[in-house]
Specification:
Layout (H helix, E strand, L loop, with lengths): L13 H7 L10 H4 L3 H13 L2 H8 L3 H15 L4 E4 L2 E4 L1 H32 L1 E7 H6 L1 H11 L4 E7 L1 H9 L5 E4 L8 E15 L12 E2 H6 L3 E3 L4 H10 L10 E3 L2 H9 L5 E4 H9 L4 E2 L2 E2 L4 E9 L7 H8 L8
Parallel strand pairs: 3-4, 3-5, 7-12, 8-9
Antiparallel strand pairs: 1-2, 5-13, 6-10, 6-11, 6-13
Helix pairs in contact: 3-4, 3-5, 3-6, 4-5, 8-14
């Protein structure tokens, strides 16, 4: 609890003070300034139980001068004497005994509050809901989640994979604690951090005419060619659409598929050119099942972002997962 400022002797009189005391039971917005902090009440209860300010200070782990200053501040704030000090110890005044009973109830309520808050943290730390775009879900998250399991072996992790628009919607609706997207835009309801970078590649089967080109493909020719593409709403589609916008945008897709694996399989089978993440086609390029087609004057790089509800920084396992994403992206 934040320690309130000692009461100002000038406060508490006049119309302004009356106005400030409005609200439920006369509390109003200034109740935190009028009610002593927990540390002062804890000291008072300890003095009542031990009969000595010095013994109370030792039990609470503070110096006797600090305890004396805290008690004087408590008395000044309340405007009444609470303790009579003598060489034989400390005794409560009549007002002090009454305030001590109130303080005990406040401290019990604070203990209940703390226990409830710890229970909530325990619930939060026992599960983690992640939503991720398909490229991140398939090629990056498995490694991150394995590392996270080492830190939080008791945390149950659920993963929902979808395109970037769907992921943003799930995080905004509170259906996921942390999301990962590949698109260009982040909704205003979300905060985001760049966790890495990726680039899209134009790929074809080795038997496709483009595989034998000696010069980069003109961007206008790519725009005019029906392609194997992910669906609208995917980060891959957003980046490609933006890059080809100066050339009239991409042609009507040859096939529009809802998964990276499906697009890749169609490309390997020779159905036509595809645009896919470098992460997704690394194995196929190494095995020469696909070939890269360079494109002149076209930037297909993109940022990979973690997203979460605006104003609510990830905590617990979600925070640790976000930290793990800052490691270099693994290459397959």
């Amino acid at each position: 609890m934040t320690t309130p400022d000692p009461a100002d002797p000038a406060e508490g009189t006049g119309p302004a003070a009356s106005s400030a005391a409005t609200g439920p039971r006369g509390g109003g917005a200034s109740v935190a300034r009028r009610v002593p902090d927990l540390a002062g009440m804890e000291l008072l209860v300890a003095v009542a139980r031990l009969g000595s300010l010095g013994r109370a200070a030792r039990e609470l782990g503070i110096s006797q001068p600090a305890a004396s200053g805290r008690m004087r501040g408590l008395e000044r704030q309340l405007g009444v004497a609470l303790v009579r000090r003598s060489t034989g110890g400390s005794a409560l005044t009549e007002s002090g005994a009454l305030v001590t009973e109130w303080a005990r109830r406040v401290l019990e309520a604070a203990e209940d509050f703390d226990a409830g808050a710890r229970a909530l943290r325990g619930q939060r730390d026992s599960r983690l809901r992640v939503a991720a775009s398909l490229t991140v879900a398939e090629y990056l998250l498995p490694g991150w989640l394995t590392a996270l399991h080492g830190r939080h072996p008791g945390t149950a992790v659920s993963l929902a994979a979808g395109n970037s628009v769907v992921v943003a919607r799930q995080v905004t609706a509170g259906e996921a604690d942390l999301g990962f997207v590949e698109g260009l835009d982040v909704p205003a309801a979300l905060d985001a951090a760049v966790i890495g970078h990726d680039r899209l590649l134009v790929v074809v089967a080795p038997g496709h005419p483009w595989a034998a080109r000696r010069r980069p493909l003109p961007a206008a020719e790519l725009a005019a060619t029906p392609l194997l593409l992910r669906e609208e709403g995917s980060g891959t589609r957003q980046v490609l659409d933006a890059a080809l916008a100066p050339h009239g945008g991409p042609a009507v897709p040859l096939l529009e598929l809802a998964s990276t694996t499906a697009v890749k399989s169609a490309a390997v089978g020779g159905a036509g050119p595809a645009v896919l993440s470098e992460l997704a086609v690394a194995d196929e390029l190494s095995a020469h099942r696909l070939a890269v087609v360079p494109v002149a004057g076209l930037d297909l790089s993109r940022a990979l972002r973690a997203v979460w509800p605006a104003g609510h920084r990830p905590a617990g396992p979600a925070r640790d997962l976000l930290t793990l994403t800052r490691r270099p992206a693994p290459r397959r």
